[in-house]
Amino acid sequence: MALGWTARVPRRAALAWALAWPLTHAALAAVPALAVYGGLSGVLHAGVAVVAVELARRTARAERRVGLAIAAGLALKIALEAPWRAAVLRPEGWDITVAPAAHAAGALAGALCAWGLAARR
Questions:
Q1: Which of 73, 78, 86, 115 is the most interior residue, by most CB within 10 Å?
Q2: Where in the sequence is the domain holding 60, given as residue range(s)?
């Protein structure tokens, strides 16, 4: 929320984020190896993707670059997590597990919802 506030995204960004929430969790049904999921990290990734799309669509070059940099960083993070390899990861030194598919699903759902709502404008 702080990122969106600082970037001054329009209200439709909040709607895009809200729409991405159930889509993120619904997409996890396509991951049979992920028997149980409880968390909001996918929704967090959706929010970041929404803000990245909103910034990338702006007319000011600096804002577009920031949006594209956020999108590239998000894509790199997801690629490094390799959600196609394992449903669940347990990073060394952490006492929690991570579901990379949730991050990928959230980022995709957020980006699609943001683009869809912005296109309707």
A1: 78
A2: 2-120
